[in-house]
């Protein structure tokens, strides 16, 4: 049963990610991205990483996509045809994928927790913290330095045009 849920949620993620490339309205693309990220969070949960699934929902599907939508509002992005957002035909695909994903989650939650505990080895926050600050400490520090360098470069390039 979990294999079926895994493959169904992976198909939803791939379809939603592919649809991002073909929709014309940027808000619709952001909604398809939300569905794709939620399907990926379900895949992380099925693979035994509930902490990573929670981070996926909170950070990517929550915070970063709110920033994307804010950026779209600030930049006042328009398409060539200026399609209105409230056409029912334009929301049908994302609504269908979201409904299908919701049914998959309900199917997963209807299964007993004992059955899930037998099939999935759960990796908790302690194991993730021990791995990040244990054998992978140098990699985490290198990523932090790389992000800091990118931040400094972005600030320098944004200020350079104002002088």
UniProtKB/TrEMBL annotation:
Compartments (UniProt record)? Cell membrane
Tell me the InterPro entries matching this sequence.
NADH_UbQ/plastoQ_OxRdtase_su6, Nuo/plastoQ_OxRdtase_6_NuoJ
Task: Spell out the family assignment given in the record's similarity comment.
Answer: Belongs to the complex I subunit 6 family.
First-tier enzyme category under EC: translocase
Keyword NAD set for record: yes
**According to its UniProt entry, what is the function of this protein?**
NDH-1 shuttles electrons from NADH, via FMN and iron-sulfur (Fe-S) centers, to quinones in the respiratory chain. Couples the redox reaction to proton translocation (for every two electrons transferred, four hydrogen ions are translocated across the cytoplasmic membrane), and thus conserves the redox energy in a proton gradient.
Question: What Gene3D superfamilies does the record tag this protein with?
Answer: NADH-ubiquinone/plastoquinone oxidoreductase chain 6, subunit NuoJ
| Protein species of origin | Nitrosomonas communis
Keyword Repeat attributed: no
E.C. designation(s): 7.1.1.-
Q: What is its main location?
A: membrane
Q: Where are the transmembrane segments?
A: 6-23, 30-51, 57-77, 89-109, 136-157
What is the designated name of this protein? Answer: NADH-quinone oxidoreductase subunit J
Catalysis performed (reactions) = a quinone + NADH + 5 H(+)(in) = a quinol + NAD(+) + 4 H(+)(out)
Origin superkingdom:
Bacteria
Question: What is the membrane topology noted in the UniProt record heading this document?
Answer: Multi-pass membrane protein
Q: Which GO terms describe its molecular function?
A: NADH dehydrogenase (ubiquinone) activity; quinone binding
